[in-house]
Amino acid sequence: MSFDTCRIGGIEAKCRLVRSATFEGMGNYGLPTENLAEMYENLADGGAGLIITGMMATNKMEPRQHCQIRIDDDECIAPLSQVVDRVHQHGGKIVAQLVVMGSAILMPETPEGETRIIFSPSGVTEKVGKWTQESQALTVDQIHELTDAVAKAAARAKKAGFDGVQFHGAHGYLASKFLSPHFNTRTDAYGGSLENRARFLLECIAAMRQAVGADYPIWVKLNCADFMKDGSLTFEESKQVMAWLADQGVNAIEVSGGNTSSLPRKGPIRAIRRTKEPMYFKAYAAEAAALLKGKTDVGVVGGFRTIADIEEALESTDLAFISMSRPFLRQPDLPNRWKSGDTEPALCISCSRCFGAENVDCIFNKKEKEKQDA
Ligand SMILES: Cc1cc2nc3c(=O)[nH]c(=O)nc-3n(C[C@H](O)[C@H](O)[C@H](O)COP(=O)(O)O)c2cc1C
Ligand code: SF4
């Protein structure tokens, strides 16, 4: 079942195994490098049903890392379309993940001669261990400017030939911060009730739909819950937001959870050998998929490591797809291996040492390459 061709979230896919968005750090001042194109070619050759890019910067109001891919200007369309073409030539499908980072930004850099602002719904300081991130509360005009930037980015993705777009509504990035009563203490139309806290996300989706037309696939990555000490976004609230997204014609929702302020071991990227809890958002996503059956496709990411578990999840629930991130870094050809009958679990040990600023790769692959080069 996992390896049958299928239609998920409005896209014809090779199979139901999706490469979840994974920041690559392979941009040269925001534009794609040869490394990036080769990495996506490998994923396409390796049999991923479809590939979701690492998060792309959509606006010029906030800082970003110079190695983060951007789609904040029309000049990005031609170079991005070359990457898309190479994926298509290798039989793959590729969806552009669009983000407004807000105060979850890591290693902010501002291009020379420009002024950029780290912003958040209410200017609540973000604390992660010893690290704190101050931010500026957004004005309503700035919110509208960002919504407009997201819509323009979606239109550019369509022009560049991407098979769809995914808006990043999870992991504490700006749309997820708006949903959180911990970080969003606004008293205007963008804060307070769930309806108000969801306004930024829903307005971004509406603006994107307006920009790309009725038939172009729009996906959303969303937290099932924030798993913070004070609750923050709850699963009950998340299910309501998912229902609103489905009503707005979102083609697929990829369920994740947590952020950098979540309780210990409750973030989005977990050390599953230590927690002994693989597939950590499966139950939430399966419940959401049953609820939204016939309205939108629901998938899930987080801790899937064996084809047996993936098959079981697809057969016993209404989930339309299963995503993985870290296993694809270690083994870009994992779907083809599994398809060929080699059903060994993914080699990824979920140590998360692949995190890095530039040229993100599995630490074991890096060591292997260093040995070969020596
Ligand atoms: C190096 C790295 C970069 C990531 N970058 C992104 C990203 O750009 N956008 C996003 O939505 N999630 C990102 N994630 C989170 C993954 O998409 C995924 O939600 C998480 O790793 C759990 O899935 P896994 O257990 O299959 O790795 C990243 C994860 C890793 C390890
Ligand atoms: S560094 Fe660790 S978590 Fe990342 S891909 Fe390699 S084994 Fe997996």
Tell me what the structure shows.
By secondary structure, this protein is of the alpha/beta class. It has a single domain (6-373), classed as Alpha-Beta Barrel (TIM Barrel), CATH 3.20.20. It has 13 helices and 17 strands. Helix 1 (34-45) runs parallel beside helix 2 (77-89) and helix 2 packs across helix 3 (140-160). The longest helix has 21 residues, at 140-160. It binds flavin mononucleotide (FMN) and iron/sulfur cluster.
Widest sheet: strand order? 3-6-8-13-14-15-16-17
Rg on CA atoms, Å: 19 Å
Provide the structure class. Answer: alpha/beta
What string gives the helices and strands in order? EEEEEHEEHEEEEEHEHHHEHEHHEHEHHH
Strand content: 15-25%
Largest sheet: 8 strands, parallel, barrel
- What is the total tally of β strands? 17
Keywords: Flavoprotein, Oxidoreductase
Pfam families: Oxidored_FMN (PF00724)
Protein name: Oxidoreductase
GO molecular function, one term: oxidoreductase activity
